[in-house]
Amino acid sequence: MENSSLGLTVCAESVSIFNAISNGERKIKTIVPTSNLDKPIHPCGACIVGVFYDLTRNND
């Protein structure tokens, strides 16, 4: 499932990771996408493939 993340934009999940890293965080354990909708939301495809997969592999 894909949300409306467009090719030349940066999604909220990536911005939160960039912000955490620029503020000194180096070990991210959890990212929780939230919204005010009454149904579950999903991260963009790039985050599912890259960010979330990487988090599952590198947090031993």
TrEMBL record:
This is CMP/dCMP-type deaminase domain-containing protein. CDD domains: cytidine_deaminase (cd01283). It comes from Vulcanisaeta souniana JCM 11219. GO terms for molecular function: catalytic activity. InterPro entries: Cytidine_deaminase-like.
